[in-house]
Design goal:
By secondary structure, the chain is of the alpha+beta class. It has a domain of 214 residues: Dipeptide-binding Protein, Domain 3 (Dipeptide-binding Protein, domain 3, Roll). The protein contains 15 helices and 20 strands.
């Protein structure tokens, strides 16, 4: 008995924990409902898709699928791995994939991820570990949509209300970690899953500290309480010394994300294109990027990122022109006696965005525009402003995949509850181009169409596209086996080791 007790104590004494921070409580740890950044990040440790990107986001490789291929341009075959278990010990098989698909396309949920499956005609199991996916027509993201996390059929098949299910806070996945503790506004703990099909993760636990204040997160990182953390450029340039760099390695990549100021196009005052153009001309994007990021960001010129073939190099960011902005506002009926007034709403979950809002407020004032600011805690911002669409403008950002799907953000059908067309953008020409492009599987033809979409969307000014930040990540030198790729550092986290 003493011997076994000694072994137990020894194991716990040497158990390793990776300490991370998240800015908000996760709303739903369910991969098909995880739309906020905290939920998506944590759910990523708990669930797997059928496929995933490699470390450079250049190729799609198997995850739950050991093999996949197209029989023809509308038929996709998946061969599933046979050694996969759910966290409760049950065996994963084709029934789980079919169940997840059926939930995604049903009326039971409201999820922006459902749009990716709108071209699927049927999913059928040829046997317990072989799936045939038949598409209605060729679809350029036919493979990528299956990166969506798969749900357990044996747990959820009788669930009547998945949107409010207990599963969303007590998830069971196939991922390398399982949820073992969820204390809202305090701590979220994940433990390595012993039977993970790629081998048990070498770090025993991941502890997410829920810290809303970005400065507190930064101070926790500096003091070594956190093992990994994102650093803002101003912090990197001005607030760190050699003692920090002696303890942390720095990894910097241009992010797959951009920030924007989105207009509520359902409000009459933003429906005049002259107003939107005036506001665009009144701001100085270069100044914004320089003040906020030093040399760690670039100006965003449109809805697709420079690292993608959909990026239109001919579209340039407008230069600040205060005189022309005033002329356009006057043509729209606004002047010093009747200034254009609106509110920017954003969250304090990022140290950058409140400052960005203040700079925009100052720049727009030069054109006679009166800007009021509303800075909110992240969850309140989502629930009270973003989801119910109760805003004049929102200062937000999107993280995009290497193969962006404009349908989710720019098609008028995505202007609905649970959709990502938050601003209510509608352009029949763009809608038609999006619809036609979905079935283009020739890479260059698709890129050409998307570059034209890029131009049309920018001309409409539904957003003021602002900046593309670099991702600056600090990792404790106690963490070993980091392998930085174009997609960042996280692709091989199950092989990380921590020296306590």
């Amino acid at each position: 008995m003493r011997y076994f007790l000694f072994l137990f104590l020894s194991f716990n004494l040497f158990a390793s924990t990776l300490h991370l921070a998240t800015s908000a409580n996760p709303s739903r740890l369910n991969p098909i409902l995880a739309t906020d950044s905290s939920s998506s990040e944590i759910a990523g440790f708990l669930f797997n898709g059928l496929v995933k990107y490699d470390k450079n986001a250049a190729n799609i490789i198997g995850d739950l699928a050991e093999d996949f291929f197209f029989e023809d341009n509308k038929t996709l075959i998946f061969k599933l791995k046979k050694n996969v278990k759910w966290h409760d010990g049950e065996i994963f098989d084709a029934r789980d994939v079919i169940f997840t698909y059926e939930v995604l396309v049903s009326a039971k949920i409201s999820s922006p991820y459902s749009a990716g499956f709108r071209f699927v005609e049927r999913v059928e199991a040829l046997d317990a570990y072989t799936l045939k996916v038949r598409y209605k027509e060729p679809y350029f993201k036919a493979l990528e949509v299956w990166m969506m996390g798969i749900l357990p059929e044996h747990i959820l098949k009788n669930e009547q209300n998945l949107m409010n299910s207990a599963f969303n806070t007590h998830p069971i996945g196939t991922g390398p970690y399982k949820l073992t503790q969820l204390e809202h506004s305090k701590n979220i703990e994940l433990s390595a899953f012993d039977d993970y099909f790629e081998g048990r993760a070498k770090i025993d636990k991941i502890s997410f500290h829920v810290i809303a204040d970005p400065m507190t997160r930064f101070l926790m990182l500096k003091s070594g309480v956190l093992d990994v953390g994102n650093i803002e450029p101003m912090q990197y340039e001005r607030q760190l010394d050699n003692s920090f760099f002696a303890k942390f390695d720095i990894y910097q990549n241009i992010s797959y994300s951009y920030s924007y100021l989105g207009f509520n196009l359902k409000k009459e005052k933003f429906q005049n294109p002259k107003v939107r153009e005036a506001l665009s001309l009144a701001i100085d994007r270069e100044e914004l990027a320089k003040i906020l990021f030093f040399n760690h960001a670039k100006v965003c010129t449109g809805p697709f990122l420079p690292s993608t073939k959909a990026f239109n190099t001919e579209v340039q960011a407008p230069k600040q022109n205060i005189q022309r902005a005033k002329e356009l506002l006057k043509e729209a009926g606004y002047d010093e006696a009747n200034p254009f007034v609106f509110e920017i709403a954003t969250s304090n979950s990022s140290a950058i965005r409140p400052y960005a809002a203040q700079i925009l407020q100052h720049q727009l004032k030069k054109a006679g525009v009166v800007v009021n600011l509303r800075i909110m805690e992240w969850q309140a911002f989502l629930n009270m402003v973003v989801f119910p669409r109760k805003f004049d403008t929102v200062l937000l950002g999107w993280g995009l995949s290497p193969t962006p799907d404009p349908y989710m953000f720019w098609h008028s059908n995505s202007d609905k509850e649970g959709g990502f067309n938050l601003v209510g953008y509608k352009n029949k020409t763009v809608d038609k181009m999006i619809e036609e492009s979905q079935s283009i599987i020739d890479g260059e033809a698709l890129s050409s169409t998307q570059r034209e979409m890029f131009r049309l969307i920018v001309e409409d000014n539904p957003y003021l596209f602002l900046y593309i930040p670099n991702s600056i990540t600090a990792v404790s030198k106690n963490i070993k086996n980091i392998d930085n790729g174009l997609s960042g550092i996280w692709h091989n986290y199950i092989t990380w080791e921590k020296r306590e």
